[in-house]
């Protein structure tokens, strides 16, 4: 079966409006910040795929190891008819789940949801070609806003992989999980991947690799703003910085102005002092019991928790 046409719940004009609003608010704030979702234009999505293959970036490999070992358990425990994947990107690891559902179970529909049209186009075509008989319905949407638009009926499994839940701040995470639970029916399932707290000597290089791919990924957000909003960021004026926050147990990516610089954007002049930083991403790391507590607080019941052999990354399976 070929993939169905993408369902667009996020039009170019919604995206533009969202970007303008985030840039207006974030660049006026002290300290300045931007939400990480704007990294992922076609180039940003490619750079992220490149990050996942870097020697320092362990989360993708570790999560793949968990899924390789336990995808069959997920299929058997959930008996899902519909698999919905939030922030699906390339859906590369999802194939481990689709393979398990092919072996046992009768999954009928796969619904990847992502803000990136380019990533969805290629992933839906590739998945549809590789899994004949599977209905593939790609949705262009924002997982923080479009949970009420997910397809209903049949037993559903929502997968939120990669540790992307760590991009949400704690209050946003609680709000997201509560909205997720409300969008599901009792007996539906949530599979969520979380990067785990570990030696910062392992975490920091994963976000500051020797080849500089993460630095390019980080700076890409400035290129997106230049192109989409006609801004004039001097991209080379900014240096990539990754900082571990031991109290909040998250890593932050920032862009540090190496010398005083300014940008004209949305009819406003924004100035950066030398050394001033713009926060572009928070990526929280979790403790196994913390994830269970957050799931319970939002009405889920965690039925399984698996890690890779090195204990780097955790995957929780929770019942709504
Ligand atoms: C896609 C959000 C899981 O936080 O590790 C990779 C994004 N940022 N390198 C992460 C990212 C810097 C990634 N997630």
TrEMBL record:
Q: From the UniProt record, list the reaction(s) this protein catalyses.
A: L-histidine + 3 S-adenosyl-L-methionine = hercynine + 3 S-adenosyl-L-homocysteine + 3 H(+)
Q: Where does S-adenosyl-L-methionine bind?
A: 87, 93, 114, 142-143
EC annotation from Swiss-Prot or TrEMBL: 2.1.1.44
Q: Which GO terms describe its biological process?
A: ergothioneine biosynthetic process; methylation
Pathway entry: Amino-acid biosynthesis; ergothioneine biosynthesis
Question: Which is one Pfam family of this protein?
Answer: Methyltransf_33
> What NCBIfam families does this protein map onto?
egtD_ergothio
The record ties this protein, via PANTHER family, to: ERGOTHIONEINE BIOSYNTHESIS PROTEIN 1 (PTHR43397:SF1)
Write down what this protein is called. Answer: Histidine N-alpha-methyltransferase
User: Per the UniProt entry, what species is this protein from, by scientific name?
Assistant: Micromonospora tulbaghiae
Q: Which gene encodes it?
A: egtD
């Amino acid at each position: 079966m070929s993939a169905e046409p993408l369902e667009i719940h996020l039009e170019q004009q919604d995206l533009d409006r969202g970007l303008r609003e985030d840039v207006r608010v974030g660049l006026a704030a002290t300290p300045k910040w931007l939400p990480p979702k704007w990294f992922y234009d076609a180039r940003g999505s490619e750079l992220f795929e490149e990050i996942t293959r870097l020697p320092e970036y362990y989360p993708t490999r570790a999560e793949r190891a968990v899924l390789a070992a336990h995808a069959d358990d997920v299929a058997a425990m959930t008996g899902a008819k519909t698999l919905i994947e939030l922030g699906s990107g390339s859906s590369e690891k999802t194939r481990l789940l689709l393979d398990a559902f092919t072996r046992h179970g009768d999954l009928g529909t796969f619904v990847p949801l992502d803000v990136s049209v380019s990533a969805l186009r290629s992933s839906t075509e590739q998945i549809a070609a590789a899994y004949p008989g599977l209905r593939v319905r790609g949705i262009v949407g924002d997982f923080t806003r479009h949970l009420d638009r997910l397809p209903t009926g049949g037993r559903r499994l929502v997968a939120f992989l990669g540790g992307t839940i760590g991009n949400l701040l704690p209050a946003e995470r609680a709000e997201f999980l509560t909205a997720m639970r409300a969008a599901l029916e009792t007996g539906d399932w949530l599979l969520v991947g979380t990067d785990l707290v570990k030696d910062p000597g392992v975490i920091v290089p994963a976000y500051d690799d020797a080849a500089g791919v993460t630095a390019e990924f980080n700076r890409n957000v400035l290129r997106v703003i230049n192109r989409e909003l006609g801004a004039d960021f001097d991209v080379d004026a900014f240096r990539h910085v990754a900082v571990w926050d031991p109290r909040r147990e998250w890593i932050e990516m920032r862009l540090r102005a190496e010398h005083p610089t300014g940008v004209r954007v949305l009819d406003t002049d924004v100035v950066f002092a030398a050394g001033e930083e713009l926060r572009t991403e928070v990526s929280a790391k979790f403790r196994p019991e913390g994830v269970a507590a957050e799931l319970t607080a939002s009405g889920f019941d965690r039925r399984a928790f698996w890690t890779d052999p090195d204990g780097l990354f955790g995957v929780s399976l929770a019942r709504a």
